[in-house]
Specification:
- α3 (108-126) links the parallel β5 (91-95) and β6.
- Helices cover 38% and strands 14% of the residues.
- The longest helix is centred in the middle third of the chain and has 22 residues, at 216-237.
- By secondary structure, it is an alpha/beta fold.
- It has helices spanning 16-20, 77-87, 108-126, 144-156, 181-190, 216-237, 240-243, 259-272, 284-291, 303-310, 331-336, 343-358, and strands spanning 4-9, 31-34, 40-45, 48-49, 91-95, 133-138, 162-165, 193-197, 248-252, 292-296, 315-317.
- It contains twelve helices and eleven strands.
- The strands form two sheets. It has an eight-stranded parallel beta sheet, with helices on both faces. A three-stranded antiparallel beta sheet has the order 2-3-4, with no helix packed on it.
């Protein structure tokens, strides 16, 4: 089987922004600092770190060693390639770690400069093997003009295979806000996927954060699937996919088990209350099957149910390597070992769907 990882992560270099940030902003380059609870975080904007320090998944070890033994391997592309060889992964899409939080930067020119710096660093990271290491651009959606410019640059000049956005509201705007239309238009024009990825602990409105402030177990459990459910509802039922019928969307790192229920629930409301969404020409589930994909967790117990509900063509394999909650080694094998999925479905999930989607 050909194995394509639709969602892996890099670990940004400590001096990334000091080396790559443009001279105008270099005096404000984010620097790594140790916060009182022992975490190492980037001081990103003013007195704010890239993530809220009180919201951490890590228990600091007494010997001061990292709680995630694979974390540093994400910084070195050659170490990553060795681990990809171990897993039989042909190539993989690379998402940020600290860069997941760039959409929460409030100052628009600074946010755009940070995104350009990160994307340039990622381009150099991928040069270790450009056919196997596939960049995903971080886009400054705070400023739509800058977002359009950076999308064109990362695809046409850097050769990236996709761009990433958060499902959370940014500057008070949800994904369906017409302000984002020029960005969606250029993503559709370039034929790349819009990749929706959550990250808990951001300075953005986040599902669950108001109920469980500072409690990572609870906020992380809630935020990833609930934010993706809200993004799915927003993009489909507010008419974004009707407006942009060639736009391809991938929902990532939330598991896939929620999807059959959510499609049913959106369809039920569309059937009963169609006059409240008159712009929809199809059932919400039909938009999803036409334009959307979802990544799955390798050890999801109900993966067979998801395949039967939404079709094996819409699921993608993701490792989440080298994050603390990733399965390593052995993530692809967990898909292979599923007894409730056909061999054909396994081939599609592990690689064929991604190959087609990315045009590889």
């Amino acid at each position: 089987m050909r194995i394509i990882d639709i969602d892996g992560h890099v670990r940004e270099a400590d001096d990334l922004w000091e080396r790559y940030l443009e001279p105008t902003f270099r005096h404000r380059a984010p620097k790594v600092q140790r916060v009182p609870n022992g975490q190492l975080l980037f001081l990103l904007e003013g007195d704010r770190y890239h993530r809220k320090p009180e919201e951490s998944p890590f228990k600091i070890k007494r010997d001061d060693s990292t709680a995630n033994p694979h974390r540093e391997r994400g910084m070195d592309p050659n170490s990553r390639l060795k681990d990809m060889d171990l897993e039989g992964i042909e190539c993989g899409m690379l998402f940020p770690s600290a860069g997941l939080y760039l959409p929460s930067v409030e100052e628009e020119p600074y946010a755009a400069a940070l995104c350009r710096a990160y994307n340039n660093w990622l381009f150099d990271y991928c040069r270790a093997n450009p056919k196997r290491l596939l960049g995903v651009g971080v886009i400054p959606v705070q400023d739509i003009k800058a977002a359009v410019e950076e999308t064109r640059r990362v695809v046409l000049e850097l050769g990236f295979k996709g761009v990433f956005v958060r499902p959370n509201p940014v500057k008070g705007r949800t994904l369906d806000d017409p302000y984002n239309d020029p960005f969606f238009a250029v993503v559709q024009e370039l034929g790349i996927p819009l990749m929706v990825h959550e990250g808990s602990g951001a300075y953005l409105p986040t599902a669950g954060a108001d109920r469980f402030p500072g409690q990572w177990f609870f906020t992380h459990t809630v935020s990833h699937p609930f934010e993706q459910m809200l993004a799915c509802l927003s993009l489909i039922c507010k008419g974004v996919l009707e407006k942009f019928p060639q736009l391809k969307v991938i929902f990532l790192e939330s598991g896939a088990g929620w999807l059959p229920y959510w499609l049913w629930r959106m369809d039920e409301h569309h059937e009963i209350l169609p006059f409240q969404v008159p712009w929809l020409k199809m059932k919400p589930s039909e938009y999803f099957r036409r334009q959307c994909y979802i990544s799955c967790e390798p050890d999801e117990d109900n993966l067979g149910d998801v395949v039967r509900a939404v079709g094996e063509e819409r699921l993608l394999f993701a490792s989440d390597y080298p994050h603390w909650d990733a399965t390593f080694p052995g993530a692809p094998k967990k898909i292979v070992d599923h007894s409730d999925i056909s061999p054909e479905a396994k081939r599609k999930i592990l690689g064929e769907n991604a190959l087609r989607l990315l045009g590889i």
